[in-house]
Amino acid sequence: MNLYPTRRVIVLAAAGAPAALLVAAARPELWIVAAGWGLLTAALLVADAALAAPVSALSLGLHAPGLIGVGREEMLRVDARFAGSPPREVEVAVAVDERLEAASGRSRVQVRDGAASASFPLRALRRGEGRLQGVWARWRGPLGLVWRQRAQQPALIVPVTPDMAAVREEGMKLFARDAPMGVKAQLELGEGAEFHALKEFQTGMDLRAIDWKQSARHGRLVGREYRAERNHSILLALDSGRLMSAPVAGQARIDRAVNAALLLAFVGLKLGDRVGVFSFDARPRVNSGVVAGLRAFPALQRLAAEIDYSTEETNFTLGLTSLAGRLDRRALVVIFTDFADPTSAALMVEHVGRLARTHLILLVTFRDEELEQLAAAEPLEPDDVSRAVVADALLRQRESVLAQLRRLGVQILEARAAEIGPTLINRYLDVMRRELV
Questions:
Q1: Residue 255 and residue 247: Cα distance in Å, rounded?
Q2: For residues 108 and 153, is the Cβ–Cβ distance under 8 A?
């Protein structure tokens, strides 16, 4: 419907009705006065509709972002332009699908020189093809008694991808020349396997690094400096099963895992290692193979964007066995996963332990901040005590699974959702400095 009354005309009609009824009751011969009020209201309504700018006079233009990183916010702009005599203001509303969120779905803007523009913050919630489902614009007639409305269903798709802006920001911080100490990646030199240079021996250096022949030639102690060996294989294995689709800190676990994996891929390729992406839920889904060089990063990015949300339970037997069959040399295998209880984690522990016999396994999981808060909260009611006891028991079971994995030689990285990326990079650099692969 593109024409309907405003609240003002309803109030106007209701306000005149009691007076008209009183006149008709007191003087029945003046009953026509009551009908006259209704006719006057209807006439004003028709006049306002005729004077209002017609629907055909409005043209709508949409300006949406080409893509949005999940968790990011971009602006959607709707331009309205009237031909002929425009209204003083126009209301614009938009509707989006479940992958997007329009923070303010309705906006009222002034019309100047026949044109108006409304902007809506558009937030990406889930990866995939976000769709703009509808745009509505409405305006009043000169008397404010009638609404004219135009609805449009644009075939507009806004792709929601992994949050590459965050990956670039973190990556640039690591490699920027003016990065502050503690942020820049400076761990290439150390206890590596490749000879790099000679330098004057300093306190704290390993005595075994002293080059006695060069020391005798230069007349002072000279040590050998090594750098970490590169060209290692790093495989990023992402569990995309049901538990990883559950939210943590307002975002799906798999989305946070994909962002952290891409950050590690960027850093690894930049430092000369070979990186591959692998995902699985009930069966293997995505497999890139290992690639080298920063030019391969866009390909990894596209494959990571294909990792979908799943409602299926993770099959660690099939997933990790398939992963092991794709590795032809010792590698650093980074597994992003989560588990709810020791029973569901039993198969994971078995197959991760088997994989750890040949490869270095780094298992990345999210700290359960909700359980920690329940366990640490001060009890005010009897139910609070029950919740705290159950939460503490679940946390103990979780720690028992992680301790079992550590005994099998698996490295564990358990971090808060917001800290998972930087913490993972620090652990990767430490692994490479210590030549654990």
A1: 9
A2: no
The amino acid present at 81, given as its one-letter code, is R
Token code pair at residue 2: 């593109």
Tell me phi and psi for residue 302, to 5 degrees.
Answer: -65, -40
Contact indicator for 170, 270 with CB cutoff of 8 Å: no
In CATH, which of 3.40.50.970, 3.40.30.10, 1.20.1730.10, 2.60.40.10 is domain 55-161? 2.60.40.10
Could you tell me the residue ranges of all domains in the chain?
3-51, 55-161, 164-186+229-433, 194-227
For 164-186+229-433, CATH gives 3.40.50.410
Q: What is the DSSP letter of 180?
A: P
| 437 residues of the chain, pLDDT tens digit each | 688 888 888 787 777 667 667 766 777 666 666 667 777 788 888 888 888 888 888 999 999 888 888 888 899 999 999 988 889 899 999 999 888 988 777 889 999 988 999 999 998 888 888 889 999 999 998 888 888 999 988 888 888 888 777 676 666 666 664 454 444 444 444 444 555 677 787 777 777 778 788 888 888 888 877 665 668 899 999 999 999 998 888 788 999 999 999 999 999 998 889 999 999 999 999 999 899 988 999 888 888 888 888 889 999 999 999 999 988 889 999 999 998 778 778 889 999 999 999 999 999 999 888 888 888 888 888 888 888 898 888 889 999 999 999 999 999 999 998 888 889 998 998 888 787 87
Of 175, 181, 159, 196, give the one whose Cα is nearest residue 74. Answer: 159
pTM of the model: 0.70
